[in-house]
């Protein structure tokens, strides 16, 4: 299948952030075969099976959400005003205890609808239920994903080992699946839910399988203070004491309560950070020292966390919040440039998820991109494309979404998910779950 899109404004997000003011992209199979300014040459026109005139719409790399719990989308708005520990214990865990195969699937379908409709093409899922079902579903839907069957180790050794085996078997089974759109990691939930010797066994297994490790880290001050009280040190220092940062590719979510010494430690490791500003603000957890990470050379990407703590999967909102927070925190208007900001949800996101993709529109790369409708009033005057994407774009500006050359949404209509049916199912499953509490 050869697809040609003409008359587009193309934000390549390549090394020099070049913009093609009016041009075309020609996709052959899953790859950008030719990208150019002006009208496509005759030989390209002849090869195209489908040609679409974008009438000035913008072609932009797709977005990556590097930390979340898609199943928890069913819990949107379920509790808005509790801190993390009480939020989990009093509201979220009891609700999750009543989830069924059907309700988990409904939440995840809703998450994929919301992500595609706001321009997200790839995401990380950290969860413990029905992961094989989700992997199969993603294979059909056509998104990219990093899937982790996460584990909590507050149980006896046999149960810990059974969970780890299940997690590692799942990871081995699905890594590279769905035409290399699905990748996997191992994922201890957090230091406060996994004893250090359990994390050590998980990391050992990840090393033997050559898989990265994903974990919540230092999300709240209370969690770090409690850890100090129990073990006499910060959870990251505990990982260092057990040599768990060596020879391992870590992706830490949150990383809000870290000292300068921790930033130095992370800079020397292969770790990267998924920054989740809206969840951290909403749960009253704090603001991560993102500028310190960036200045130390630690890669930073953006995640929404679960919708139950956000309450949206719209990465444009998340990105804007991240940038504004850091500018205000360090009192520097040039703390993060618009181009740097965009890279956090594009290139850095792709790198964090270790997809092998570059997060750019470039010949030879896989054809992952979104089309942004440029006609909304908040995108006028149109000149400052990068600025508008960071500071004014919203999810509903995205009109089309492509992954590996396959169209997942055209003119706001989803092609691989039944949105109306999913909306109906989500509301039914939510009511059934609440009634069973
Ligand atoms: Zn999380």
From TrEMBL:
InterPro entries attached here?
Answer: Amidohydro-rel (IPR006680), Deaminase_MtaD/DadD (IPR023512), Metal-dep_hydrolase_composite (IPR011059), Metal_Hydrolase (IPR032466), MTA/SAH_deaminase (IPR050287)
Q: Which residues bind substrate?
A: 96, 149, 189, 219, 305
Q: Which reaction does it catalyse?
A: S-methyl-5'-thioadenosine + H2O + H(+) = S-methyl-5'-thioinosine + NH4(+); S-adenosyl-L-homocysteine + H2O + H(+) = S-inosyl-L-homocysteine + NH4(+)
Q: What does this protein do?
A: Catalyzes the deamination of 5-methylthioadenosine and S-adenosyl-L-homocysteine into 5-methylthioinosine and S-inosyl-L-homocysteine, respectively. Is also able to deaminate adenosine.
Domain of life of the native organism: Bacteria
UniProt cofactor(s): Zn(2+)
Query: Where does the record place the Amidohydrolase-related domain?
Result: 58-406
- Species annotation: Alkalicoccobacillus gibsonii
**Which family would the database say this protein is a member of?**
Belongs to the metallo-dependent hydrolases superfamily. MTA/SAH deaminase family.
Query: Which Pfam families did the record assign?
Result: Amidohydro_1
- Which residues are listed for Zn(2+) binding in this entry? 67, 69, 216, 305
Which EC number applies? 3.5.4.28, 3.5.4.31
- Tell me what this protein is called: 5-methylthioadenosine/S-adenosylhomocysteine deaminase
What does the entry comment about cofactor binding?
Answer: Binds 1 zinc ion per subunit.
* UniProt entry keywords in alphabetical sequence: Hydrolase, Metal-binding, Zinc
- Which HAMAP family is this protein grouped with? MTA_SAH_deamin (MF_01281)
Q: Transmembrane segments in this chain: where?
A: none
Task: Name the gene that codes for it.
Answer: mtaD
